[in-house]
Amino acid sequence: xxxxxxxxxxxxxxxxxxxxxxxxxxxxxxxxxxxGEGDEFVGVAVPQLRALARRWRGVDRxxxxxxxxxxxxxxxxxxxxxxxxxxxxxxxxxxRAWVGDYRRAVDNGYVNNWDLVDTxxxxxxxxxxxxxGDHFALVDLAADERLWHRRVGIVGTHAHLREGDARxxxxxxxxxxxxxxxxxxxxxxxxxxxxxxxxxxxTLTDYLDEHAASMGRTALRYAIEHLDPxxxxxxxxxx
Length: 239
Description:
With 239 residues, this protein is mostly helical. It is built from 16 helices and no strands. It comes from Gordonia oryzae.
């Protein structure tokens, strides 16, 4: 019988669609000079990958580790779904081990596009940090100048924001607010917007009152997206 990683890889490839692979590759900039340069795609939609993750519920860390080293983007995406699924179910020691695997995957360059970061940072690392009451790992990653490390640090704060805790986001923001890379700007603005929605509008506006004038336009645009029109105009005028 084939190993679990071999079965998973076979299942992903069977669902592949070359036309969809081309579309996804363009969307995720897998072109020379793009942030996804060199990645491989087989063309499997996210809902299909989520269904496969449910099918392999209970998979072990070794199998997920093998999948994470795949050159195929969708297989790494599925591996991260599995990691999020299993780390959430694990006890303290088990969850810590999954988080260690995740940090190594980030360091090894396997979490190397925004969709991979966004599907894993909060449910794996952020949730663990929230669980133990220590968000240093997120701050540490946000302080890293490498693009995907920094985005993990920012997006990972979503786990705390969902629980009404803005402290990790407010600790991360000063480290990234001057980074004008588009994928950092969007992540920062997104989490600030979530802070306003999930923690409180005043928490967001207090931050913007102090920082809107010096923020990047993209981050500001994302952050104020759900505010009323007059308030959006006021903050844009500060730029």
